[in-house]
Design goal:
Strand content: under 5%
Low-confidence stretches: none
Helix content: over 70%
Number of domains: 1
Shape: globular
Radius of gyration: 16 Å
Mean pLDDT: 81
Distance between the termini: 11 Å
Number of strands: 0
Length: about 210
């Protein structure tokens, strides 16, 4: 889609995200890799941020949306390359402390970005979940999907009210995303954190190139 249609594409994508994350969360929960009650302290601020971000998204131009995505994706390469051991091992001591002010503010801001644009928010969330909340990358991925699912519901409602959703395209995209989510959930559990980190680096570079230069 061209730049002028980016806001509607941004809204339409939320349909696919809703179905994809619902399927993936169910998969991680069934595998015993997701304990929802333990993470409510970071999920709730992210939901609030997601709602605010969706409200802002309806007010910006398509070109601004595209460029901001590209810049953010470039910035996200930094934590992916710095101290990779943190991505692989997590920080159990930090995780036990629960959600303090730093964690709550961090996840509110990440939720704000996710509600605003969604694309690339998974990298932001994984960074925060590993480096700020102390989870390892596999469990962090499960909590990431839970957070996205929770704020996507109100965000989609906001995009619908602003007439920024095409249901025909959104449902078609959802079918492909659900298949991808099913495969990704099983591959994450089988291959572990090194595989996920390498895949993230490739995806981020590709996305940044696409939005900054094409």
């Amino acid at each position: 889609m061209v730049a002028s249609s980016a806001p509607k594409a941004n809204g339409t994508n939320r349909i696919a995200i809703l179905f994809q994350t619902a399927l993936a969360v169910g998969g991680f929960k069934k595998q015993g890799k997701l304990q929802i009650r333990l993470h409510l302290g970071i999920v709730l601020p992210a939901i609030l941020g997601g709602v605010l971000g969706a409200l802002i998204a309806g007010q910006v131009s398509g070109d601004v949306l595209r460029r901001s995505i590209g810049v953010c994706m470039v910035l996200m390469l930094i934590p992916l390359f710095l101290n990779p051991a943190r991505w692989l091992e997590g920080n159990p001591e930090r995780e036990k402390k629960g959600a303090g002010p730093v964690q709550m503010i961090t996840f509110f801001l990440v939720g704000l970005y996710g509600g605003y644009v969604q694309l690339g928010v998974g990298v932001f969330l994984l960074t925060a979940l590993v480096l700020v909340a102390g989870l390892d990358l596999v469990r962090g991925n499960a909590v990431k999907l839970l957070i996205v699912l929770c704020y996507t519901l109100p965000a989609l409602a906001i995009f619908v009210m602003n007439d920024l959703v095409r249901w025909d395209l959104g449902l078609t995209l959802a079918a492909g995303n659900m298949l991808g989510a099913w495969v990704a959930t099983h591959e994450a559990a089988r291959h572990g954190t090194p595989f996920i980190r390498r895949l993230l680096i490739v995806v981020v570079i590709a996305a940044a190139t696409r939005y900054l230069f094409f």
